[in-house]
Write a structure and sequence with these properties.
With about 300 residues, this protein is α/β, with parallel strands linked by helices. It contains eight helices and 14 strands. Among the domains are: about 170 residues, 3-Layer(aba) Sandwich (Rossmann fold); about 45 residues. The longest helix is centred in the middle third of the chain and has 18 residues.
Length: about 300
């Protein structure tokens, strides 16, 4: 395992009791130090279950979860019987921001931030809380309770609380969904800037393609409990692994084509010249295929 890998999942699987379908089936990927990795997919694809398995809120039926070089969950009893096969969430040293923020209503903002570091000496704890409130831009609101804060402010407090124990990674479970559209982009940018400045790796769960592509350095597209493709946004957009990734990664028109001698030709009598295949070696044999045309790739000739 590379030294810069903060979170690693290997062959992760989970099937809930009474279900005939696995929520997660053989998911594997690495989260590297300082990067933002987005788990992107439709509802029910397994992205939130994957996040819960990493956080320790659920146990895998198969596979392993490694955090900071330590195996925190495995379905197989380790050879060293002294090593636990399960480490609870509070000892995994990762932070999490929930979709509804999950702030404690009976604690003010400063007390919420301090919740995960109660074991520190009082001066060190107070200093850490003061610094984090300043980092998230709420230095003057530490004595306010959650119901006295706006949605964006609550989210910042939730982020400060997650950062308090100095984790190397933060898990974000669709944290921007409850914000107004006009506020969402600004809050998203501010939070990611804060996390980048703190040097924290981010695993973001979202069903919003534009959000994933705007925020993440890499995107893992999920469907039916499996990862279809992992890569930079531009790779998923320009070189999708399959039709599902192509359609989920952005707008486009799928057109039937025929492949002959390393060239693509539109079928159905379209008077369009054939075009060369970018990677002829990837085409095992000639025959019918589907071509994806992105909107920005279309040029209108006013004088054909």
């Amino acid at each position: 395992m590379r030294d810069d890998v903060v979170v690693s999942v290997r062959g992760l699987a989970r099937r809930y009791p009474g279900s005939s379908v696995s929520a997660v089936a053989g998911v594997s990927f690495d989260l590297h130090a300082g990067e933002v990795l987005a788990l992107l997919g439709p509802s029910g694809c397994g992205k939130s279950t994957t996040l819960r398995l990493i956080a320790g809120f659920d146990r895998p039926d198969a596979g392993e979860v490694w955090i900071n070089g330590v195996c925190v969950a495995t379905s197989v009893r380790p050879l060293n019987q002294g090593s636990p096969s399960w480490i609870p969430p509070e000892h995994r040293r990762i932070g999490m921001v929930f979709q509804d923020y999950a702030l404690f209503p009976h604690l003010n903002a400063a007390e919420n931030v301090a919740f995960g570091i109660e074991g520190l000496p009082r001066p060190e704890r107070d200093s850490r809380v003061t610094r984090l409130l300043a980092i998230v831009g709420l230095a003057e609101l530490g004595d306010r309770y959650p119901h006295q804060l706006s949605g964006g402010q609550q989210q910042r407090i939730a982020l400060a609380r997650a950062l308090a124990p100095r984790p190397r990674a933060i898990l974000l479970d669709e944290p921007f969904n409850t914000l107004d559209a006009s506020l969402r982009v600004q809050v998203r940018r501010d939070l990611l800037d804060i996390l980048a400045a703190e040097g924290v790796a981010v695993l973001l769960v979202t069903h919003d393609q534009s959000e994933a592509f705007a925020c993440a350095s890499r995107v893992a597209v999920m469907r039916r409990g499996q990862v279809e493709q992992v890569g930079p946004p531009e790779t998923l957009y320009n070189r999708p692994a399959n039709r599902f990734v192509a359609g989920f990664g952005g707008d486009g028109l799928f057109m039937p084509v025929a492949v002959h001698s390393g060239r693509v030709e539109l079928t159905g009598g379209w008077p369009v010249p054939s075009v060369p295949v970018s990677d002829p070696a990837a085409w095992v044999q000639a025959g019918d295929a589907v071509m994806l045309v992105r909107p920005e790739e279309v040029l209108i000739d006013p004088d054909p």
